[in-house]
Amino acid sequence: MSTSGGRKLAHVALLPSAGMGHLTPFLRLAALLVSRNVQVTFITPHPTVSLTESRALSTFFASFPQIKQKQFHLLQAEKNSFDPFFSHIELIKSSGHLLPPLLSALTPSLSVFITDMTLASAVIPITQAISLPTYVLFTSSAKMMTLFLSYPALAGSRALDDVEETGVIKIRNLELMPKSLVPPPLLQKSDNFLKKSFMEESGKVIGSSGILVNTFASFEFESLGKINDGEVLERPPSVVAIGPLPPYDSEKSRLQLAWLDDKPAGSVLYVSFGSRTALARDQIRELGVGLIKSGSRFVWVVKNSIVDKEDGQELEEVIGHELMERVKEKGLIVKSWVQQEDILSHPAVGGFLSHCGWNSVMEAAWNGVRILAWPQNGDQKVNADVVERIGLGTWVRSWGWSGEMLVSGEEIAERIRECMGDESLRIQTLGIKEDARKAVGFGGSSDKGLTELISMWKQF
Ligand SMILES: O=c1ccn([C@@H]2O[C@H](COP(=O)(O)OP(=O)(O)O[C@H]3O[C@H](CO)[C@@H](O)[C@H](O)[C@H]3O)[C@@H](O)[C@H]2O)c(=O)[nH]1
């Protein structure tokens, strides 16, 4: 705790997990806290997995000199998972014992620590040992949180065995969750990273001082209400919706937008599957065919490998010469990192073909851009379900999980036409944008939630 003009300031340290899907909400939260007169120390696991993460960190610290950066040098470890981001999460966790000296060297002493839900089991025992109140930032939806918090209990009962027969999961007093929404690794008998992570982290998150979640009350009213009313766990930690976490100024580059500038309002479809999802080569090509046949204008971000450092191929090699030429007639196609916020906030952009990574969902809500959902992995079907129910977009459930089927260009084109031509969806998404802005605006639900937390932290 420190003082400014005689008033107490809270001092908060943040420790994010691996990948832009986890780093971005932590950076946005740090920026938001600074704007609320909170002193922030940002702990950066070093090295990062992707170049994009290290670039985002450099830009961030250059823009926020008042935020103290502390590098957390990770142990050298063998990669033991097929997914580099999962390996890195393991590495951060196994380096956890290096945190105490780093934390005790921080001045003034910390009021609160905030970490990611994927790191809770390594961090919370350490921070509890030094009586440091620790919160978890849940970077996915509140609906996904219902599954996350109840998973150990489900795994300990017959619920997961019965799912093959019943086709649904029953989480205490909640509406039944169809098996088709649940990430398949969570239902496998064999051990895997996600299952292990849900088992280990969930219990520790339950013992945290509270959970912050990047969503807002009117968007996920039911899930938030059920968690806080004790209908998921008998005694849940308090869950506070603080989203959508707004982008900070230096996230905007305004570099790539010339192509969009002369396009009619709402006429362009933005196509991206987030920071770590590469479609199979044949699916990428069918998607290209679909985009052309849809007749829509588009900006398409092609991703060919999970980690950017490993992608040495040229765009033309990935999508083929002929398709490349045809695509150029109607669209802008890129194979590098784009500033998604620049694109989604551009008036020409009216639709988003998205995998429904939760940050992308919140960014679409923030900008009032309708989603055509094409979830691929993990939490993304649960998120797509939220999107569809609230009226932010449409979802073709039959497209399945990544790699389950090859979705034809013809089918993709038809769905794009439907989504982009849906006037009522356009109007609904504008209403959601208003609600999103209200939630974080002065006196809004997320604003109030964060304000209350900060005043409590000042007392710690
Ligand atoms: O070229 C790009 C690609 C992505 N982004 C940004 O990167 C973030 C990506 O996050 P998200 O949309 O959530 O997707 P993933 O990168 O796939 O995120 C991972 O983390 C999320 C949060 O836990 C989960 O919901 C996802 O399923 C998981 O894959 C967003 O802020 C995007 O705006 C860009 O700015 N430019």
UniProtKB/TrEMBL annotation:
One of its GO terms (molecular function) is anthocyanidin 3-O-glucosyltransferase activity. The keyword Glycosyltransferase applies. Keywords: Glycosyltransferase, Transferase. Its EC number is 2.4.1.-. Pfam families: UDPGT (PF00201). InterPro entries: UDP-glycosyltransf_plant, UDP_glucos_trans, UDP_glycos_trans_CS. Pathway: Pigment biosynthesis; anthocyanin biosynthesis. The keyword Acetylation does not apply. It comes from the Eukaryota. It is an enzyme of class 2 (transferase). It catalyses: an anthocyanidin + UDP-alpha-D-glucose + H(+) = an anthocyanidin 3-O-beta-D-glucoside + UDP. Belongs to the UDP-glycosyltransferase family. This is Glycosyltransferase.
